[in-house]
């Protein structure tokens, strides 16, 4: 019982697209003042009795071809993949390497440099949502849950795995729900959930226990709601339900991975100096515009799917 009480005390998540306040929480790292804390119920297959998984149809949209990714983002994905993987690694090993990379090299906070890809290559149209949201954590090591999920999804694809982005909701201890995003990955023919943003928060300065790594629907449904489950709860608008049906029903994840990894101590990077980082980005944009003229107005594809900027959950 002491072990599970300890886990509950660690289950604190920084927010996603809605406003969060985490500055007064112990153990947080470089937390944005626009975040709001969410304390999750502990997911456990050994102590709890989650309901059996519902039947969820396969996602109806196909992953974008890696050849279509903007060269600036593609090059960064290739650099990371070459750094952390080798051709002989199993699908499981590649997945864990990508997950660990996110934990060690990314920090929770507002995304930065979201236009920086426009300085590298002549592309008149916005890049797709996943690329846009993945840019800040991949290139600058900072982002929110949508950014983490997008970055991990694209990194796994770059490493030869099938992976998908999942928007959904999280339960709070108070019984509320808040919007969130995570990833599903296919390993040896079976799909699994993995939540890098949540794992990152509860592991800051502590041991990584992989509590949100390669779980099945039954385990994840204790703390997460998504896809057809979310539609069945009748919480959203008809338009939101239609968007889930068209794009985000998600894959069925029938089981937890049979052999969870051993815990490890994070080898985390120090938090970035956000003021210095923003100054560096601004200087790069200024130099480009001085040489090439002002960047034309462009509406970037950054609005989270389903929940939009308003998010879902209790107001601040």
Oligomeric nature of the chains: single chain
**How much is the average pLDDT?**
81
Instruction: Give the ordered list of helices and strands.
Output: HEEHHEHEHEEEHEEHEHHEH
What is the approximate shape? globular
Largest beta sheet: strand ordering: 9-7-6-5-10
Portion in helices: 25-40%
Rounded Rg? 19 Å
- The total of beta strands comes to 11
Strand content: 5-15%
Instruction: Report on the biggest sheet.
Output: 5 strands, antiparallel
- Secondary-structure-based class equals alpha+beta
Distance between the termini: 33 Å
Account of the 3D structure:
The protein has 316 residues and is α+β, with helices and mostly antiparallel strands. The protein contains ten helices and eleven strands. Helices cover 35% and strands 14% of the residues. Strands 9-7-6-5-10 form a five-stranded antiparallel sheet. The protein has a two-stranded antiparallel sheet with strand order 1-2. Strands 3-4 form a two-stranded parallel sheet. Helix 3 (91-105) packs antiparallel against helix 5 (145-158) and helix 3 (91-105) crosses helix 6. It is globular.
């Amino acid at each position: 019982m002491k072990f599970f009480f300890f886990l509950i005390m660690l289950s604190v998540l920084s927010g996603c697209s809605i406003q969060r306040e985490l500055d007064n929480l112990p153990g947080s790292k470089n937390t944005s003042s626009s975040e709001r804390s969410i304390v999750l119920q502990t997911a456990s297959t050994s102590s709890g009795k989650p309901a059996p998984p519902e039947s969820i149809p396969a996602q109806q949209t196909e992953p974008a071809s890696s050849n279509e990714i903007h060269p600036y983002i593609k090059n960064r994905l290739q650099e990371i993949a070459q750094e952390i993987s080798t051709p002989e690694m199993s699908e499981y090993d590649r997945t864990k390497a990508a997950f660990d990379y996110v934990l060690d090299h990314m920090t929770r906070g507002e995304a930065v440099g979201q236009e920086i890809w426009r300085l590298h290559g002549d592309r008149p149209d916005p890049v797709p949502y996943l690329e846009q949201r993945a840019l800040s954590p991949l290139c600058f090591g900072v982002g929110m849950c949508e950014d983490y999920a997008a970055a991990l999804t694209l990194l796994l694809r770059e490493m030869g795995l099938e992976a998908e982005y999942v928007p959904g909701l999280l339960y709070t201890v108070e019984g509320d729900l808040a919007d969130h995003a995570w990833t599903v990955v296919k390993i040896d023919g079976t799909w699994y959930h993995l939540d890098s943003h949540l794992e990152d928060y509860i592991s800051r300065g502590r041991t990584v226990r992989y509590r949100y790594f390669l779980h099945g629907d039954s385990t994840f449904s204790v703390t997460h709601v998504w896809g057809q489950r979310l539609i069945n709860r009748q919480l959203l608008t008809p338009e939101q339900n239609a968007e889930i049906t068209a794009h985000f029903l998600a894959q069925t994840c029938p089981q937890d991975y049979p052999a969870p990894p051993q815990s490890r101590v994070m080898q985390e990077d120090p938090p970035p100096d956000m003021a210095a980082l923003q100054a560096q980005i601004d200087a790069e944009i200024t130099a480009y515009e001085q040489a090439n003229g002002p960047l034309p107005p462009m509406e970037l594809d950054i609005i989270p799917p389903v929940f939009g900027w308003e998010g879902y959950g209790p107001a601040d």
